[in-house]
Amino acid sequence: MRSAVLLTILLSSLCTIVHCWSKEDHEIFRLRDELELNEGEGVTFYDFVGVKNGPAAVMDDINKAYRKTSARIHPDKFKPPKHLSRTQQATAKTKASERFARLGLIANILRGPERDRYDHFLKNGFPKWRGTGYYYARFRPGIESVLLGLYLVAGAAHYVVLKLNAKKQRQFMGDIIREVRQAAFGSAGVPGLAQALGEEDPAATGVKKQKKAKRDLGGSGNATPNRRKVVGPNGKSFIVDASGDVFLLDETEDGTQELLLDPSEVQDAKWRNTLLVGLPKGIWNITIGRFFRKKAAGDDEAEDWEAEEEGGANGNEAAAKKKKGVARKIERGGDGLPRRRAKGRAGKSHL
């Protein structure tokens, strides 16, 4: 109850801080920033209007000073330097008009009820934090900045979600390992496991000798004196060996497979799996990247075709050599001599 009251008071104070500046205050802040930016740091409304007494000045002093200053900086009397270009002269005239308009706004504040607020800020200091509305109106972001900000925030939030999911999966797997070990060996746990692990949590450390194990038992999955089988409430079957490793029995068409449960094998959150990397990568793959994939696939097909052609040519050449060798062998007689020479000898014998 006490914490709820303190939280309510804190939220109320924060709301008060956020909403303590009125529209008139924001106008004073804006004019003060513009005045120091264009006239110099530390220049007050009274200095700009030309009032010498400052906050102690009366209304007549403010009116007289305003008439004198407005006549001096009136845009009709402003003549830009001749050495400036036409564009620069037009810019100078625009600034002179803005300066004259600023003088009128400041004079209206000093002659109106807002003067008390300005004198308060002038005496006690202007606040550094002026509310989100003031900064949004002054530095209003474009649609590109808004989309970029949302994209970065969404990417960071996605990373946090992946981090929490990975942590939750490790905790869930660790709980299953502890429950299965307890069901298999009782509350005492696996005999000798605590000493072998240095009194550490077996579910957190585990034996790493069979990481990523996926062994085909050929449909066995039976318990032995060193391996105990446990059936969970959800109907899942587990095997616990003497070293404390817990295996999930997965029934498939090829038989029963043992899948080692190891919390450290749960993939941790990575930035490349978040929206920050996945979105640009997906856009690339469906736009420009697909042309590169087609080109790469075409090159691979061309290489395969060339390899097949080379293989076919080599095969034909080998076949031709083989055929040629057979022909030479057939052309030779039983004594290994060419038939041509054998015919010559035969002809000579007839003579």
Structural overview:
The protein has 351 residues and is of the alpha+beta class. Helix content is 61%, strand content 7%. It is built from 13 helices and 5 strands. The protein has helices at residues 2-18, 23-39, 45-49, 59-72, 86-110, 114-124, 132-138, 143-185, 193-196, 202-205, 275-286, 289-331, 339-350, and strands at residues 214-216, 227-231, 237-241, 246-252, 255-260. Strands 1-5-4-3-2 form a 5-stranded antiparallel sheet. Helix 4 runs antiparallel to helix 5 (86-110). Residues 3-7, 14-19, 199-220 and 321-351 have low confidence and may be disordered.
In brief:
The protein has 351 residues and is of the alpha+beta class. Helices cover 61% and strands 7% of the residues.
